[in-house]
Amino acid sequence: MILFPAIDLKDGQCVRLKLGDMDQATVFNDNPAAQAKSFEDQGFEYLHVVDLNGAFAGESVNGAAVEAILKAVDFPVQLGGGIRTMAHIESWLDKGLARVILGTVAVRDPELVKEAAKKWPGQVAVGIDARKGMVAVEGWAETSELSVIELAKRFEGAGVAAIIYTDIDRDGILAGINWDATIALAQSTSIPVIASGGLASMADITRLTQPDCAVLEGAISGRALYDGRIDSREALALLKGVA
Length: 243
Description:
Elements: E1 2-10, E2 13-18, E3 21-29, H1 32-41, E4 47-51, H2 52-57, H3 63-72, E5 77-80, H4 86-94, E6 99-102, H5 104-108, H6 110-119, E7 124-131, E8 134-137, E9 142-147, H7 148-154, E10 163-167, H8 179-188, E11 193-196, H9 202-208, E12 216-221, H10 223-226, H11 232-239
Parallel strand pairs: 1-4, 1-12, 4-5, 5-6, 6-7, 7-10, 10-11, 11-12
Antiparallel strand pairs: 1-2, 2-3, 7-8, 8-9
Helix pairs in contact: 1-3
């Protein structure tokens, strides 16, 4: 069970949004590379990074900050936000990312995702962001007519490394993960699922140790780590040994 600390990048700074709203951003650190190193020093084994500006722009905007993070740490880093072409994927993997997360393009061009997953085994994940069970795209600005499970099933057997599932209605407000929807998604696909959006407290960490969560690869935490609601060492110790 992997606990991924999150770095969300906006204008070169580490921020957390409330309900996916770019106008409701709280800055937690103006040095993303130092924040990443801090997470590594705390004992985390994998970092989750999102280029928020890139998600809206459809191309990398915080590339310099991401490259600084990659230079600062040794643990694997996954990145989402604005990655929408094969050339873009290849460029980031060449720079040392462990895996890229494809979101909007997974809805717009699923064949590209399948091609990428085949070309770079284990290095292509799909980000599914949902509002009331329906997939949102373009930096969460648009909601599609596609259900979460319907989208996941499109990539069954395609070699996708993981699905990062975010419930936008809970993201950044410490409301707790949408366990029912997340576990239902994980049970509907053979692709490993990572829970995101709303992880709020040590109670949520404890919840991850329950048998029904064994279908999950892990969970992502942002705001609760930054403001101390989750003690990193205690959380990592609790999850150690959980399958």
